[in-house]
Amino acid sequence: MDCLVLNDTQVLPARLVGQRALTGGRWQGLFLSADENGFWQLLGKTRGKVATGEKILLLDDQMHEDVSLTLLKRLDEGGWLALPDSDELAVEILTRIGRVPLPHYIRDGQMRQGDQERYQTVYAKHPGAVAAPTAGLHFTNELLRKLGDRRIATAYVTLHVGLDTFRPIKATTLADHRMHSEWGTIEPEAVDTIRERRANGGRIIAVGTTSVRVLESASAEGNLEPWTGTTDLFIRPPYQFRAVDALLTNFHLPRTTLLVLVRTFGGDKLIEQAYREAIEQQYRFYSYGDAMLIM
Question: Per-residue confidence at 37, pLDDT binned at 50, 70, 90?
Fold first, then answer.
C-alpha cells in the first residue's frame, strides 16, 4: 500500500505591527527567523528611511506597546537583523503579539478571527514556518482516518517554509537563481515507514513541494536516510527524482521555484494541460485553492 508524506511544520504568527520610537510612524514587519543568540531576521516596511540603530515598538492586538526591537544591520533584499529587548524565545513573543502571516491577496494580509486555525494544517506540530504548506490544507482529521482505514500509511517530515520559496524568479536563467536555505528534518521512524512501503510495491506520495524538498534532500547520496539540516535545493530540469513517486500540490504562481519543481516532476506537456483545464474550469488558485495529483 501507498504512503503519504506530510509536512508537519506549524505556521508562526509572524506578521508584526509596530511603530517607530523615533517618529511614532507606523511600521509593519514579518519575522523570518531567529538564531541561538536571540537575533532576529525580519522584513520591515514604513514611510521614510529607517536608520541602523532605530528602535521599533511592537504592538499587541489591542495596539498596546509590548517588546521593542533594535534594528542592527541591513541585510540583502530589504531584510534586517534585529534584537528584541527580551530574553523570551521568539516563538513566545510571536504567540503573544504576532498576527497570522496571510498572503497579500487575502484581505491584503489582514487577519480576522479564525485565521489562526484556518491557515494551519490539522497535523501541524513544529513551529517555524512563515507560510503554510498549502497542499496540506486539504486534509481533515476525518480524511486522514479514512486513509488509515484503507491502510494508507502516513509519514511526517518537517520543513519550515520561508518566504523565499514563493518569491518570483528574476534571474535570466534558472541556473542563476539563488535559493535561500530552509530548515528541515526527517526522523528514522518516517524513513523506516517509507522504505517498508516502497519495498512492498507502494508508492511514496508527497503532499506539497515542501515534502518533496525534504525527501530529495535526504536522498542526496542516493538512498533515503534520516536527515536534519538546511537545504537550498532548487529542483529544476534535468533533475532526477529519487524518493517521490507522486505529488499532490496546489496550483502555483508563474515564475516561482514551486512551479519549476512541479514542471520538472510532471513534465511540461502534462502540467500545461493541467493548468489549461484549471483555467477553463475556473479552479481556485493559490493558498486556499484547488490541488492536483501528479502520478
Answer: very high
Domain residues for 129?
Answer: 3-11+113-294
- Report how far apart, in Å, the C-alpha atoms of 284 and of each of 132, 253, 260, 292 are: 17, 12, 20, 11
Residue 106: inside a domain:
no
Claim: this prediction has a pTM higher than 0.70: yes
Q: Which of 63, 78, 101 is the last residue of a domain?
A: 101
Asked if residue 202 and residue 215 are part of one domain, the reply reads yes
Rounded to an integer, the average pLDDT of 52-77 is 92
DSSP sequence for 83-138: EES--S-HHHHHHHH-B----TTTGGG---TTHHHHTS-TT--EEEESS--GGGGG
Yes or no: say if 230 and 181 are a contact pair by the CB < 8 Å rule.
Answer: yes
* Main-chain dihedrals φ then ψ at residue 139, nearest 5 degrees: -95, 135
Task: Assess whether 92 and 139 both reside in one domain.
Answer: no
DSSP class of 168: B
DSSP one-letter code for 233 = -
The CATH number of the domain holding residue 19 is 2.40.10.240
- Do the strands 204-207 and 15-20 form a parallel or antiparallel pair, or are they unpaired? unpaired
**Is residue 107, in this structure, part of any structural domain at all?**
no
In the block, cell 512492498 appears at 200
**pLDDT tens digits, residue range 85-100?**
999 999 999 999 999 8
Query: What integer pLDDT is reported at residue 120 of this predicted model?
Result: 95
CA distance readout (Å), 182 to 15, 43, 231: 19, 16, 6
